[in-house]
Amino acid sequence: MDDTSRAEPREFSSPLLSTELQAYHGNHGVECEDKRQKETWSVPAILILTTLVAVSGSYVFGSAVGYSSPAQKGIMDDLNLGVAEYSIFGSILTIGAMIGAIISGRIADYAGRRAAMGFSEVFCILGWLAIAFSKVGWWLYVGRFLVGCGMGLLSYVVPVYLAEITPKNLRGGFTTVHQLMICCGVSLTYLIGAFLNWRILALIGTIPCLVQLLGLFFIPESPRWLAKFGHWERSESVLQRLRGKNADVSQEATEIRDFTKALERETEATIFGLFQLQYLKSLTVGVGLMILQQFGGVNGIAFYASSIFISAGFSGSIGMIAMVAVQIPMTALGVLLMDKSGRRPLLLISASGTCLGCFLAALSFFLQDLHKWKEVSPIMALAGVLVYTGSFSLGMGGIPWVIMSEIFPINVKGSAGSLVTLVSWLCSWIVSYAFNFLMSWSSAGTFFIFSTICGFTVLFVAKLVPETKGRALEEIQASLKR
Prior knowledge:
Helix content: over 70%
Number of helices: 19
Protein name: Major facilitator superfamily (MFS) profile domain-containing protein
CATH superfamily of the largest domain: MFS general substrate transporter like domains
Pfam families: Sugar_tr
Mean pLDDT: 82
Strand order of the largest sheet: 1-2
Radius of gyration: 22 Å
Largest sheet: 2 strands, antiparallel
Family: Belongs to the major facilitator superfamily. Sugar transporter (TC 2.A.1.1) family.
GO molecular function, one term: sugar transmembrane transporter activity
Number of domains: 2
Distance between the termini: 39 Å
Structural class: mainly alpha
CATH topology of the largest domain: Growth Hormone, Chain: A
CATH architecture of the largest domain: Up-down Bundle
Subcellular location: Membrane
C-alpha cells in the first residue's frame, strides 16, 4: 500500500464538474478572503477510484439497515424465532453501532483512515458469515452485533476520509455520495430480499465488504492524517496524486502544514476534553444536528410508512417502491446541489419540508380521530410521508455527516467524531424504542412533536450552522474556534 510509488493515473474532464474555483489566502488558515475565477476541473481517476472504494462501505451500511425487513419471515420460520426474539435481532445492530462509534475515532486517528475502513469490513464480513450459517438464534445475534460494530466505524470514517481527500469546491458533493450509497444499499437489499433466501442475502452482503477491503490496497491515505503524524513529503505527494499531476498543490499543502503545526501546540483531546470554550461552537453544531436529525422522526416515518400506505389504499409494496422512487432521486439531487447552493440553504429547505411532511401526517391522524374528511385523510398521510422522505433525502439525511466531517480540527477529530456518531446512534435507538409507546399514546400527537422538532431545526440551522461551501477545512475549523 505504498502511497508514493505508483505512476500517476490518467485524468479526465467532466462538464458536470465545471464550477467556480474558490481560493483563499491567509496566515495559518485564519485570515481568509475568497477569490473566484472560472476554471474547469480536471478530476484525476485516482480521486474517483478512491471515492468509489470509500463509499462501498456506505453501501455496506445501507445493506445492513435494509436486511432485517425482507429477511424477517424466513429467519423466524427457519429458526423458530418469536417476535420478541426477532426484535432483539433487529435492535442489536444499533447497540453494535454504538460500540463501533465509541472506538471509531481512536482507530481512525491512530491506525489511519484506510485501516479503520479495513477493520470495519472485517467486522462486517465475520458478521454476515455468522448470520448466513447460523443454526440457532444466538449466532444471529453475534453476527448482527458484529455488523453493527462495523457500521459504527463506517458511519464516522467514510465521510471524514472523503472530506479530507477532496478539493474544497467538490467536497460537499463527494461527501454526500456517502448518503446516496446508503440509500442504494437499503433499497437494493430490500428489492433483492423479496426474491432470495435470507442466507443467500447475507452472503451477498459480504460482496461490497470484499470490494472495499481489496480496494483499500489501491487508494492513498488521507493527506491530512499523514501531515498530523509529520509525514510531510508523503502528505504532499498524496495530495498531488489526488489533485492531478499538473495541479499546483503548493498553497493547499502549505495551509495543511501550517494549520497542523499550529495544532501541535495543543494537546490531543479526549471526549471529556472536548468540553472547552474553544470547541463549544463546533460541538454544539455537530451534536445538535445529529440530535435534531434523529428526533425529527426519520425512524418513525420509516417504521410506520407501510401502515400509512395501506391506510391510504395502496399495498405496502407499492408504497415502499414509491418511497424509493422519491428517496434516491432526491438524494442524488442533493449531491448535485451541495457545492452549488451550499449546505445551509439545502438544510433550511430540507428541514422545512420535513416539518411540513410531519404536520400533514399529524393532521391526517387528527382528522381520523375526529372521523372527519375520511376520504382525504389517507391521501394526506401518503403525501406527508412522501414529502418528508423527499425533503429528508435532499439535505437532513446527508448534510449533518458532511458538516461533522468538516468542522472539527485534526487534533480533536477522533474524539469529537466518536462522540457525534455515538449521539446519532443513541438517539436513533431512543426514537426506535419509544415510537410504539408514543403512537399508542397519540398518533397525531407523535407527529405533531416531530413537526415541532423539525421546525426548531430550521431555527437552529439559521442561527448556528455555518456555511462551509468552497472553504478549506483549515479555514472552517479556525473560524469556529474564534
